[in-house]
Structures are given as structure tokens and as C-alpha cells.
Amino acid sequence: MKHIKSLQTRDLKKSIKKGGGCQTSCAVGNQSC
Amino acid sequence: MIHQYQNNGYNIVMDIESGSIHVVDDIVYDMIAALDEYSQKTAIRSVIDEDDIRAVSYDDIRDYLGAKLGSYDSSEIAEAYEEVAYLIESGNLFADDLYADYISDYAQRETVVKALCLHIAHDCNLACQYCFAGEGEYHGKRELMSFDVGKRAIDMLVAQSGERHNLEVDFFGGEPLMNFEVVKQIVEYARSIEEANNKKFRFTLTTNGMLLDDDILEFANKEMGNLVLSIDGRREVHDRMRPMRGGQGSYDRIVPVFQKAAESRGQMNYYVRGTFTHYNLDFAEDVKHLADLGFKQISVEPVVAPPGERYAIREEDVPQLLEQYDILAKYLLERKREGKAVNFFHFMIDLSGGPCAYKRLSGCGSGCEYLAVAPNGDLYPCHQFVGMPDFLMGNVDTGVTDTHLRDRFKKCNVYSRKECRGCFAKLYCSGGCAANAYNFTGDINGVYDIGCSLQRKRVECAIMMKAATAQ
Q1: CA B154 to chain centre
Q2: Average pLDDT, integer, range B190-212
Q3: Measured between beta carbons, which residues in chain A are less than 8 angstroms from residue B382?
Q4: What CA–CA distance (Å, rounded) separates B331 from B208?
Q5: Mean pLDDT, residues B40-67 taken together
Q6: Do B91 and B53 form a contact (C-beta atoms < 8 A)?
Q7: pLDDT at B134 (0 to 100)
Q8: Which of A24, A27, B1, B54 could form a cystine bridge with B345, CB 3.0-4.6 A?
């Protein structure tokens, strides 16, 4: 696309449909799955 | 929900519910703002079914966009709208919020205990002014955890962790190295029962460095998955807040020890962890100082203190702190370009491999998946609640007996705080810290406004850095 560059992100809506139980969090955004 | 912001020359559009992030040019940036305004009154898309979303046709919106985007050429507007409509129809712009329907069920889920924070020593050899443990004295109740209590805590964790394989244990204080023999005994015991119980322990040790000698470092490098080294930054900043009990500074003593520790771990699996206060609102300089000392894994975090404390962050401090995060983000990008990258904990973000929406909505796990153990074996929701009678949950022999309190924490999530629902950062912070909320509002479901302002800026900076490195 000429005007837009989309960063590669996880599809959160798909993830909620698949269902979630990752580390606890507190030294969420930088956690990996 | 859409959030748009400009930072370091980038136009960034976040579509909160889908998790999509777009870096756009000026015409699309202005167009999305116009469409966001339009969507408050009129639908800009129709959902035929889950896989068939249709954006409003250009013919139907041409006049509105023409009026709103008068400085752009009409053919350019049409071309840009084609790209925007594609994002809408692919579910990556103006996506619906469907999470509220799921979160109530998720809050009822059965949980297991995943992690413990062992308060191995309620005693300290420093007298840090901002310590929530009362300058390490624990309000006159110095106490060390016995091996027997630690062993029972490990047994409880194994028993209450269900089928989960990976378990985490923090050694915390006070200063944990004032009870190092018990740390070693607990680690040895936990390792001895791993195989029989199909568990794997990951340990973290936090230390002020005063007792960190070669033998302890060798042990830590063998057994600790993470080592947290407490240092605030520049000498005068550090020594003002982290003096020894006699009043002398501790900076000169710990810096070479920490540099050696970081190198011995290959500059991985550790953090130098500092606290900034009202006294060093230019905290980006402290991060730079730590980087100049050779540290590659850095966290410098805002103090959490009662509003009346002289060193507490105040509302009027916030604009300068936000500016500092911007300065820091540019500095870190510059270091990366020069091949001298360092990690800053609060700017680390995994966009493509980050947690699922459930995790993002459900909070940190305190009080249900994560518990703190006091030296006498009492259980609390997390390290910041230790010693508060209203938050005593049980002990290492009984496990959690106050299930009502556990369930209150389990339901602590983005949708339990009305302020979070409309916040663009909600899926990056999960509703924030229950302890901070309680300390500032008297309610674990409250919000700590200053903390929220800083968190939102950190999210914006972290995403800007991703945009910059994706170029």
C-alpha cells in the first residue's frame, strides 16, 4: 500500500475465540506467547 | 477504538480491539481522524457476517471527506480511502469490542498458582528512603524466613500448581542475601523434587549488591534465571536515596560488583533496576548513565509513594516525565543504529508474539496465580501487600483460605475498571497494578492516575520504536 504500512501484530480477536493459561506479569506488553 | 498519535516524525494509528497498528502518511492520518468523528454518529461499516465486513462506499462519504480534508486533492482522497476501506473490511480498523462478552466467563476460571514471591529476609543493610518495607526495617519487625517455612512454601506451590510444569519463585526482601544460606537450601530442595513432580523451577534473586561476592555470584549464575541488581543511576541520585545505615553512599561499592555480575552472565538474564523520584525528574540521564556503565538490560521505574512524601511523583511532574520518555526513546534508537543497543524494560513490547487477549484482559495474576509469602509463612496477594492485615489470605500450611479475597483479585481486570474501558493502553497494561490502585484509592479496582499517564506514554514510545525499526 502507498499510504499505509501495517506493523506485524498478533490477531487479538482470533486469540479470544481460541480461548486462553503464560507467566504471571508485573522488573503484559512485553510478554511473549 | 482508535488511538492516533504522532511521535518522532511517525503518524501512528492503533486499532485497539484488533491489536493492529498502522504507520500512515498525513492524508490517511487526517482521514482516519475524520472517520472516527463520523463514526460517532453514523456507521462507517456494516457487518454482514464475521468474514464479510463492508466499509461505507466512497460515493456515500465523498462529500464528508472532501469537506474535512479540503487541503488534499480529490483523487488523492479517493486513493487513500481505498486503502483505509481495505483495512476496515479486513477487520484491522474500527474493529468491534467483543471482549466484554468473554471476560466475565474468564474471571470465573479455575486458576492454579504459578509463582511465589518469598520474602526471605525482612531485614536490610541499606536504608533506602523510598523502601515500602520501611527503610528495610519492616517497621521494627525484622525477621528472616526459616528453611522450614521456605520448604513448606515450595511444597504448597507444587501442590497448588496443577498440571503446570514451569513454576517461578522470587527471592525478595528486604535484602535476600542477608539470609543466603536459606536461599541455597530452598533452591536445593526445590531442585530435588523437580523430577518426581514433573516441575521445573525458575528462580529470581533481587539484591542491593552489598553482600554479592564471587561465591554468591557463582551460585546465582548457576541457579537464578534472572538476577535483579538495584541501582538508581547517577552516583548522586543513587546515594541520596540508597544510603548505608551509617549514611554513607553505596554507589561506589556496588557498581564494580554489578558490572562484574552483568558480564559474568553474558549481559543476559539480569536487570539493573532503578527507581526515579521527584528528585530526579530527568531520569533519562540515569538510564544513559547505566548504559554508559556497560549495562545492557536496564529498568528505571517511577517510585510508588504516598502523595505526602517529599520524593513522591506529583501531578505537576508528569509533563516533564512524559518528555523524558520521548528523549529516552530517541536515545535508545540512536544507540541501536550505532550498534550499541540496550534494552529498557518498559519499552520492550512483543507485537507479533505477545500474549492472547485473555491474558491482556485478565491482569497480572496477583492474589490467585501469584502469591507472596511472608517470613512467617503467611500468604498475601503480592509483595506490596505483605504485612497488611486486610490482605492476609492464608499460610503455607493451609494454602489460600480467604477464597473471597482470591476471587476479588481474580475478577480484577480491564473491564472491572470503568476508566480502563476507554483507554487505548488497556490491552498493553491489563488494568495496571492492584497494589498501586489500592495505595492511592483504597480500592484494588481503582486507578492510579499518574501511573496511567506514564504507562500510556511508555506504550506510545515502545510502539514508535517498533515503527522506527520496521522501516
Answers
A1: 25
A2: 95
A3: 26
A4: 27
A5: 89
A6: yes
A7: 64
A8: A27
The DSSP H or E segment spanning B272 is strand B270-276
Q: Give B368→chain A minimum CA distance, Å.
A: 10
Contacts 24+ apart (CB under 8 A), B318-321: B318/B450, B318/B453, B318/B454, B320/B281, B320/B282, B321/B281, B321/B283, B321/B454, B321/B457
- Residue B205: half-sphere exposure toward Cβ, Cα within 13 Å: 28
Helix or strand (DSSP H, E) at B271: strand B270-276
pLDDT reported for residue B139: 55
The conformational region for residue B387 under phi > 0 = left, psi -120 to 50 = alpha, else beta, is left
Query: For residue B114, which of A27, A32, A21 has the smallest C-alpha distance?
Result: A21
Cα(first)–Cα(last) distance of chain B, in Å?
A: 26
In DSSP notation, B359-426 reads HHHH---BTTTEEEE-TTSEEESSGGGTT-GGG--EETTTEE--HHHHHHHHT-SGGG-HHHHT-TTH
Smallest CA-to-CA distance from B300 within B466, B135, B458 is with: B458
- As a whole number of angstroms, the distance between CA B400 and CA B272 comes to 33
CA–CA gap between residue A10 and residue B346 (Å, rounded): 20
Q: In what order do the strands lie in the sheet with B20-24?
A: A4-6, B20-24, B10-15, B2-7
3-state DSSP assignment of residue B137: coil
Total Cβ atoms within 10 A of residue B268: 10
d(CA B12, CA A22): 29
> What number of other Cβ atoms are within 10 A of residue B281's Cβ?
17
Amino acid at B155: D
Residue bearing cell 552472565: B265
Cβ–Cβ < 8 Å for B149, B377: yes
Q: Please indicate if any CB of chain A lies within 8 Å of the CB of B100.
A: no
Inspect the interface and report whether the beta carbons of A13 and B95 lie closer than 8 Å: yes
* B20 lies within 8 A of chain A by CB: yes
Phi, psi torsion values for B67, nearest 5 degrees: -70, -40
The 3-class SS string of B210-261 reads: CCCCHHHHHHHHHHEEEEEEECCCCHHHHHHHCEECCCCECHHHHHHHHHHH
Given a cut of 70, whether residue B448 has pLDDT beyond it is yes
Asked if residues B45 and B54 have their Cβ atoms less than 8 Å apart, the reply is yes
How does strand B297-302 pair with strand B224-230? unpaired
**Which string of b and e fits B311-331 if b means at least 16 CB within 10 Å?**
bbbeeebbeebbebbbbbbbb
The 10s digit of each residue's pLDDT in B292-345 is: 999 999 999 999 888 898 799 988 999 999 999 999 999 999 899 799 999 998
- Cell triple for residue B470? 520496521
CA B380 to each of CA B119, B186, B406: distance values in angstroms, whole numbers, following the listed order: 11, 20, 10
CA quadruple B267, B257, B287, B334: dihedral, nearest 10: -40
For residues B145-165, average pLDDT? 95
Kindly state whether B301 is in contact with chain A, defined as any CB-CB distance less than 8 angstroms.
yes
Give the DSSP H/E element, type plus range, for residue B203.
strand B200-207
